[in-house]
Amino acid sequence: VVIHFTSFHIPCEMGASLTIVSINQEEKSKEFCGDSIPHLHQAVWIPGAGSQRTIVFNAGSAVNQSRFQFNYRRPISENRTYTSDSGIVMNYLYPEGSYLERLPLIINISPVTRGGSLSLYFLRFSLGSPHNGTCAAEAMEVREGETTSSRMLATLCGGVNPNPLFSTSDRITLVIDRNRHNVFSSFVTFSVMYITSTQGPGCGGNVTHTEGAFSSPGYPGALQEAKTCRWYIGVPGRNQMTLRFQAFSLNSTAGCDTNYVEIYEGTSDQDDGFVVRYCGQDHPAPYESRGNKIVVKLVTSGPQPGQGFYALFRANVQETPPQVEYAVGNQP
After folding, report:
1. What is the DSSP string of 286-313?
2. Which of 14, 130, 138, 237 is most buried, most CB within 10 Å of its CB?
3. C-alpha to C-alpha distance for 320 and 112, rounded to whole angstroms
C-alpha cells in the first residue's frame, strides 16, 4: 500500500500521535506527530503480505486540535526491458526525480545484438546517501547478466555521477532496492546511456539520440593496449550537434601520429569526411557538426599513461520558424 499525506497537524506535546502498523513483524511500525507532513510528502511504502494496513490515531488530549488527511493506492511497478543496441535508461518523470514505490525496481538491458559488450555512462545520478562509505539504505546494483543474481559489477548510491562502467557481457541488469528496515519510498533521479560495442569493452558503438556520452575504453583509467575505436554518433531529424570533451589526455608524439582522436562528418571515417585531429593534453574546443551524423575515431598505439577522454554530445534543436498568416481577399 502506498500512502500519501496531504495535510498533517497532530500536537506531540498533547500526547497525540499517528502510527502506521505493518503486518510484517520484521518491519518496524512508524509513529508520527507534529506539523510536518511525514517525510516531506514521500509515499510511505508498507511491505508485507496481504493488502490490509492499520493506521492508529491516538488523540491524547488533542481531539479537537488534531487533523490529518491522506490518500492511498496500490504501488506502481516501473520494471522494464530495453532491447535496442544503444539508448538511455532514465527514471519515470525524468528530468524530475520520482519516488520508487514498489521495490526492487529491475531494469534489463538486453540488446538485440549478441556477442558484444555493454558500457554505461551516467548523465545524471542521485539515489540516497552513502554511510561510512557504503550504500546501507538504498542503492543501484549493476549486474553483468540477465538476472538479479548475476555477477555484481558495481553498487551505486549518492548524488555524484559515477564513472563509466565497462562490462564484458552483452546483458546488464540494474536493480534498485532499499534496506528492508527503510519503509519510505526511495527518491531517485537517473539518466544512464548504454552503448553496445563489438570492438571490445568501451570501444566504439552506434548511437542515435538527442544527447548522450561516451569515453575511451576504461576511462578514467589509462589505456592498456593498442586500439582503434569508432563511435557513430547521430541526432534525430535535421539537427546539428555539439560535441564537448569534458576530459582529454592522450600521451601523443609531437607530430600527433600516435594516440589521437579524429572527427569525421557523415557516416564513415573516409578521407573526404575528415575534419580535425586532437591529441596531447590540450582540451579541445566544443565541436559544432555540419550535419546530424559524425564519426569519432580513437587510435592508440599501446599502453600509455593518459586517462583518455570523456565526451558529451547534444542535438542543437532548430527552432520552428514563425507561422505567417495571410488574409484571403482582395489585395491592394
Report:
1. PEE-SSSEEEEEEEE-S--SS-EEEEEE
2. 138
3. 35
> Residue 104, preceding bond cis, omega within 30 degrees?
yes
Q: What is the dotted CATH code of the domain comprising 204-315?
A: 2.60.120.290
| Cα distance between residue 198 and residue 196, in whole Å | 7
Rg, C-alpha atoms of the chain:
26
Identical fold for domains 80-196 and 204-315, yes or no, is: yes
- Structure confidence by residue, pLDDT tens digits, 213-237: 999 999 999 888 889 999 999 998 8
Domain range summary for the chain, segments of one domain joined by +: 2-73, 80-196, 204-315
For 105, the grid coordinates are: 525496481
- For residue 227, how many other CB atoms are within 10 A of its CB? 21
- Per DSSP, 237 falls in state T
Helix (H, G, I), strand (E, B) or coil at 327: coil
Strands 98-100 and 186-197: antiparallel
State the number of CA atoms in the 13 A half-sphere of 324 facing the CB: 2
Distance CA 281, CA 306 (A): 8
Residues 152 and 131: their CA atoms lie apart, in Å, by: 20
Strand, helix or coil for residue 273: helix
Residue showing cell 540494474? 174
Q: How many helices (H) does the chain have, and how many strands (E)? A: 0, 25
Those residues with Cβ within 8 angstroms of residue 84's Cβ, 6 or more apart along the chain or in another chain: 111, 112
The rounded distance, in Å, linking the Cα atoms of 49 and 52 is 9
What 8-state DSSP symbol labels residue 12?
A: G
Report the DSSP pairing between strands 165-166 and 117-127.
Answer: antiparallel
- Minimum mean pLDDT range among 91-100, 148-157, 229-238, 266-275: 91-100
Q: What pLDDT is attached to residue 180?
A: 59
In whole angstroms, give the CA distance from residue 12 to residue 60. 9
Closest of 149, 165, 159 to residue 125, by C-alpha:
159
